[in-house]
Amino acid sequence: MIEFAGYEMPVEYTGVIQEHLAVRKKAGIFDVSHMGEFWVKGKGSLELLQYMTTNDVSALSSGQAQYTCLPNGAGGIVDDLIVYRLAADKYILVVNASNIDKDWHWINRHNTFGAVLENASESMSLIALQGPHSSDILQPLVRKNLSELQSFYFFTESMDGIGKVIISATGYTGAGGYELFCYNQGVIKLWNLLNDKGKKFGLVPVGLAARDTLRLEMGYCLYGNDIDDTTSPIEAGLGWIVKLKTKGDFIDRDFIENQKNTRVNRKLIGLEMIDRGIPRKGYSIFDNKQNEIGRITSGTMSPSLQQGIGMGYVITEMSQPGNEVFVQVRNKFLKSRIAKLPFIIK
To answer: With bands split at pLDDT 50, 70 and 90, how would you rate the model's confidence at 31?
Structure first.
């Protein structure tokens, strides 16, 4: 167990590699109740979210979610998050645990639209059920046909003894599966119920360490590592969540549009090791003339690939997949190459 964003969190239960491979091949269950949840309701809710986020919230139908980010007014990112639309005037935002207070103050500060805001982070819990057998485990517990639930769609269902549960086809692993939101009083029953049903499918509880290796294999950004207040969505390869053509004004629109129309000086890249070694956060990246061209933001030994992988920023002219680069590990320069993300295909 370690302290993380004010919570005591499990790093691992039985072992990082075992947990990671279980999610890729069978199923894993995560207690991610540390994540923050904000309700945005009433008149002005859509207008507020359209102004504060880069993605087009108006494109959502009820029962649909979208990945987006909050620009900070200075070219950086306050946080990345998921917006869920329950109705035309009712949304829930799921934000990173380490940014709950920061996000809450930022959104309130810009709420000149009359939306009603509620911070439900302390009253809501979140369980992630991930992996190829997730549907086999969950289907007997719900009435809805899960095969009809597309990625980034959700539904709400009352479960006996647990109450209302929001069940969403989302996750942070790239292995498929669901995220289940409920109020705190029902979460232990939900956790035990899913574990019970999952035994015959090889379901295992998974900690923070494997959550990190799983998301890294997919090239998913981690706030505080790969994106933060100093990185722009365009630098981070998140141009796909910036909808300039379908939205009106939003925070940092002009800055982001200028970056899209010109060229950024650096880009977030994937990196795979050729020499044996692990590219850790903070390690420098060099070209073949030993000129420093960037820095690692996340790195690990991939359990699926049995290879060191990482993400980081390099100067744009060196960001092309296939380019040979070197990572400095202590006094050695280890050969590696720029890789196309994700490292593994779903």
So the answer is: very high
